[in-house]
Amino acid sequence: MFLPAGKVDGVEGIMAAYASALNNVSLAGPTLFGQVINTAARIAGQSLSYDRSKYFVLLIITDGVLKDLQETKDALVRASDLPLSILIVGVGGADFTQMEILDADNGRRLESSTDWVATRDIVQFVPMREVH
Predict the structure, then answer these.
(1) Residue 32 near residue 67 (C-beta atoms within 8 A)
(2) Is 125 exposed, middle or buried (0-12, 13-18, 19+ CB in 10 A)?
(3) Cα dihedral 91, 9, 72, 67 sign
(4) CA dist., res. 100 & res. 71, Å (int)
(5) Is 13 within 8 Å of 57 (Cβ atoms)?
(6) Cα 32 to chain center, whole Å?
(7) Which residues form the Copine C-terminal domain (predicted)?
(8) DSSP-based helix, strand, coil % in the chain, nearest 5
(9) CA dist 20 to 6, 75, 83, 127, Å?
(10) Is the N end or the C end of the chain the one with fewer CB atoms within 10 Å?
(11) Residues 80 and 122 sit within 8 Å (Cβ to Cβ)
(12) In b/e form, how buried is each residue of 38-50, taking b as 16+ CB within 10 angstroms?
């Protein structure tokens, strides 16, 4: 179910938004996450001033290798104290080693190019080829 301002309600809403997006976009490279993460972080950060009960989830479905790994890491570190989690779903046969780095499930938190350390791991990476 779609809500005002591009918001969706529940898994059904996510799936409907995804189906709609596929009909309205053309998929192409390069794979760049930094800007979209910065935008999601800005929205999550702005919400803190008027409603601290909101939590945001950014779903990224990708079939490519990142071309902006450091910018993405920097964006994730900056966003790590916001009410935001990011689910990255890898589709296809690409090398998703970078996504595993972003996920930080190895116990080491991400570090930015300015040596800031993420306050928490906000990324969960799921390779679809391992889900079946």
Answers:
(1) yes
(2) buried
(3) positive
(4) 16
(5) no
(6) 11
(7) 7-131
(8) 40, 20, 40
(9) 12, 27, 26, 23
(10) C
(11) yes
(12) bebbeebbebeee
- Cα distance from N-terminal residue to C-terminal residue, the chain: 27
**Domain map of the chain by residue range?**
1-27, 31-130
Q: Residue holding tokens 């791991």?
A: 121
Residues in the chain: 132
- Residue tagged 């803190």 (tokens): 48
Alpha-carbon distance 45 to 100, whole Å?
Answer: 26
Bridge partners (DSSP) of residue 69 are: none
Q: Which amino acid is at 129?
A: R
Q: What is the identity of the amino acid at 55?
A: Y
* DSSP β-ladder status, 84-90 and 123-127: parallel
Q: pLDDT tens digit string along 12-45?
A: 877 787 777 777 777 677 899 999 999 999 999 9
Q: Provide the whole-model pTM.
A: 0.81
Q: pLDDT tens, 67-99?
A: 999 999 999 999 999 999 999 988 888 889 999
CA–CA separation, 51 and 60 (whole Å) = 25
